[in-house]
UniProtKB/TrEMBL annotation:
SUPFAM superfamilies for the chain: Carbohydrate phosphatase
Gene symbol of the encoding locus: fbp
Domain Fructose-1-6-bisphosphatase class 1 C-terminal, first and last residues per copy: 180-312
Catalytic reaction annotation: beta-D-fructose 1,6-bisphosphate + H2O = beta-D-fructose 6-phosphate + phosphate
Species of the source: Devosia ureilytica
InterPro entries: FBPase_C_dom (IPR044015), FBPase_class-1 (IPR000146), FBPase_N (IPR033391), FBPtase (IPR028343), Fructose_bisphosphatase_AS (IPR020548)
Residues at which Mg(2+) 2 binds: D103, D106, E261
Name the record gives this protein: Fructose-1,6-bisphosphatase class 1
One Gene Ontology cellular component annotation held by this UniProt entry: cytosol
Co-factor binding details: Binds 2 magnesium ions per subunit.
Signal peptide: none
Length: 315
């Protein structure tokens, strides 16, 4: 079996870049252990504080952020950490060549029901500064803490999947994830229908019509409410994920954050042959204006994403 360290030698000759991925993988392995025991340790509740985005922090949002920070602090390859849970970017090492942007705990509203949550990360060159396009990413990945802990990572080639073994090592379990081009599953929070724009409404109506509508095939709907879990399903068996701009989120630019949610997921999905867009622009082409910027996110199986883009051209 190939482990993460062996795979990294096949993906890059840049040891410092490989070490940045290794640090995030080590943080993920530690977080996996913490999450398994969190209900016993009484850690699934609120922290009693808000993050910069005004969201109530869970105790584990804070704990996982500290774990990531501790793993990166000892790595001189890292210059700066950007985190959902930190108001400002944090300096790590003055010599560091890489910026890491992270959502240390994604889907934390799922903690009290023991559903899959995750850690997302994006690695960018320090030289480009804090605000860089997703297409400038050097590596990206996430850890999904499900029945098994899965690390999904891409440097420049394929998107590869690793599973945490009993000894805390990441073993490769899928060399090249491939998002099927076509799919019959869509993921969207349908309770937000009254806020949707015409394109989203059109696409979902068409899908719900199944074989009686223009799509000519039946669809299923899935929504975990944890981006990592929804995207992991799409990476494994196809589908489309939509958190579009709607009338309620429009003033904020969307719901999900560009630097540590949309960009890394778009980079991973595109590395697996999928497609990503805001509806009107490729996610990876967006020039950020703020480290906590929010954007509309539509990604997954290429044919489905193209159908949504077609709707945005029409309306
Ligand atoms: O509550 P909603 O509207 O279903 O939104 C769910 C989305 O919000 C998120 O939970 C936001 O992430 P955080 O938990 O990191 O804030 C995504 O994982 C998920 O896709
Ligand atoms: Mg998140
Ligand atoms: Mg989070």
């Amino acid at each position: 079996m190939t482990d993460l360290a062996q795979w990294l030698t096949t993906q890059t000759h840049d040891h410092a870049l490989a070490s940045a991925v290794t640090s995030m993988a080590a943080a993920g392995a530690e977080i996996a252990g913490i999450l398994q025991l969190a209900p016993i340790a009484g850690q699934t509740g609120l922290a009693g504080s808000d993050n910069v985005q005004g969201e109530a922090q869970k105790a584990l949002d804070v704990i996982t952020n500290d774990i990531v920070l501790n793993h990166l602090r000892t790595n001189t390859a890292i210059s700066i950490l950007i985190s959902e849970e930190l108001d400002e970017a944090v300096d790590v090492s003055s010599q560091g060549r890489f910026i890491v942007a992270t959502d240390p705990l994604d889907g934390s509203s799922n903690l009290d029901v023991n559903a899959t949550v995750g850690t997302i990360f994006s690695i960018l060159p320090s030289a480009g500064g804090l605000l860089q396009k997703g297409s400038d990413q050097l590596a990206a990945g996430y850890v999904a803490y499900g029945p098994a802990a899965s690390l999904v990572v891409r440097i420049s080639g394929a998107t590869s999947v690793f599973t945490l073994d009993a000894d805390g090592r990441w073993q490769q379990t899928l060399a090249e994830a491939k998002v099927p081009q076509a799919s019959g599953e869509f993921a969207i929070n349908t309770a937000r229908e009254r806020f949707w724009d015409a394109a989203t409404t059109g696409y979902v109506k068409e899908s719900v019509a199944g074989e009686t509508g223009p799509a000519g095939k039946r669809y299923n709907m899935r929504w975990v409410g944890s981006m990592v879990a929804d995207i992991h399903r799409i990476l494994m068996r196809g589908g489309i994920f939509l958190y579009p701009l709607d009338s309620e989120t429009a003033s904020k630019g969307g719901r999900l954050r560009l630097l540590y949610e949309a960009n890394p997921m778009a980079w991973l999905v595109e590395g697996a042959g999928g497609r990503s867009t805001t509806g009107r622009q490729g996610i990876l082409d967006i020039m950020p204006t703020d480290i906590h910027q929010r954007v509309p996110v539509i990604l997954g199986s290429a044919d489905e994403v193209k159908r949504v883009e077609e709707w945005y051209r029409r309306v």
